[in-house]
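> example.struct
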């Protein structure tokens, strides 16, 4: 999945999403953003799952 996300291939949009831990955002595979470090990326099958993870990450950061 990482290779697909790096290639920004829109053919995979809707099949999975990825979240970047350090920025608190999630994207479709076609996102044209900068390539995140491998250790900062998590993959999800739905936008809802990715959004829950991003919200949890933001809450954790706010507690620090």
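> example.seq
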């Amino acid at each position: 999945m990482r290779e697909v996300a790096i290639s920004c291939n829109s053919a995979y949009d809707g099949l999975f999403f990825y979240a970047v831990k350090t920025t608190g955002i999630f994207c479709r595979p076609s996102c044209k953003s900068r390539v995140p470090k491998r250790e900062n990326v998590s993959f999800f099958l739905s936008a809802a799952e990715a959004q829950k993870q991003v919200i949890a990450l933001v809450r954790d950061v706010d507690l620090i």
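> remarks
The chain is about 35% helix and 15% strand.
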